[in-house]
Amino acid sequence: MGQIQLNQVTKSFGDVQVIPPLDLTIEDGEFAVFVGPSGCGKSTLLRLIAGLEDFTTGHIEIDGKDATAVPPAKRGLAMVFQSYALYPHMTVRKNIAFPLRMAKMDQAEIDRRVENAASILNLSDYLDRRPGQLSGGQRQRVAIGRAIVREPAAFLFDEPLSNLDAALRVGMRMEISELHKKLATTMIYVTHDQVEAMTMADKIVVLRAGHIEQVGSPLELYRTPRNLFVAGFIGSPK
Ligand code: ADP
Ligand code: MG
Fold first, then answer.
1. Rounded distance, CA 34 to CA 195, Å?
2. Which residues form a coiled coil (predicted)?
3. pTM
């Protein structure tokens, strides 16, 4: 399960309202992409969903239950950070297991989950290495593995590929899409890259200055952009 619903959510930093009242529903199992120019509020919105940032007003429901006051660790959502957030001195196994050890999970269950994640991500042969001994793509997979082992209701990605080179980015994009097919878990993916949005999304949420310009499938946005901003961003002729 992983339906996420935002109701009249706003966020201000001091006097500056960066998210005006916003309503949004992400359906269970959906691959949703938040896209928009730098500074439009994508990361803030994702952090609000993750619970890493408090709402100024409004509330969030996860699977129909009010989660506004639920702390991040208890929301059942897993944020995927860029690969440089790995611990360099720990093995791949320990990096992936880290959130489960923090949660004091039983060691046999930790081993089972880590091995399952490693097998899904083709990392089984690399569990004893350290991040410095891996390629960029492998490191990014370890960062994803750390989310998978938590068996979250939804994965939250904030521009996870932005520090990878172009060729690797294309490969990882396909790997994340494959992972979504395999797990059928809700994913919210933030990017400023329209190609990523168009190729990966079930639903694209186009943001501009903290508000939603349009929500729709890639085809809907391409065929019937609501305005020039969406058309320009999605790259459709208008
Ligand atoms: P994006 O991820 O789309 O680039 P952000 O969500 O990071 O955008 O930022 C949205 C707006 O909120 C920007 O104007 C940014 O300067 C502002 N902002 C983000 N975080 C903070 C913060 N901790 N304090 C003050 N302003 C912030
Ligand atoms: Mg951002």
1. 12
2. none
3. 0.94
